């Protein structure tokens, strides 16, 4: 069984998959930083000083209406954050 596993890993498919996962995670962080730090602040100014980081739709109002996204996370209120 060990020899079969080593043969499977040696074919390169597993290594290619691992490299793709690592590159995807890094690329996701780069895109998030670009959108949060470069793209959204000028758009917020353009649309009248809108703070996109706090835009959300509250799905369950039985626990109250949160003041911010951080408040919703700490209180466990389900929201759809679109900012």
Overview of the structural elements:
It is built from three helices and two strands; from the N terminus they run H-H-E-H-E. The mean pLDDT is 87. It has a two-stranded antiparallel ribbon with strand order 1-2. It has helices spanning 2-10, 13-46, 69-75; strands at 56-58, 79-81. The chain has 83 residues and is mainly alpha-helical.
Which labels suit this protein?
single chain; 83 residues; mainly alpha; 3 helices; 60% helix
Write the layout of secondary structure elements.
Blueprint: H1 2-10, H2 13-46, E1 56-58, H3 69-75, E2 79-81
> Low-confidence parts, pLDDT < 50 over ≥5 residues?
none
Shape: elongated
Give me the count of strands. 2
Q: Would you tell me the structural class of the helices and strands?
A: mainly alpha
* Average residue-wise pLDDT: 87
- Sketch the major β-sheet: 2 strands, antiparallel
Instruction: Enumerate the strands of the largest sheet in spatial order, edge to edge or round the barrel.
Output: 1-2
What is the count of helical runs? 3
Provide the gyration radius in Å. 21 Å
Tell me roughly what share of residues is in helical segments.
55-70%
Quick rundown:
With 83 residues, the chain is mostly helical. The protein has three helices and two strands.
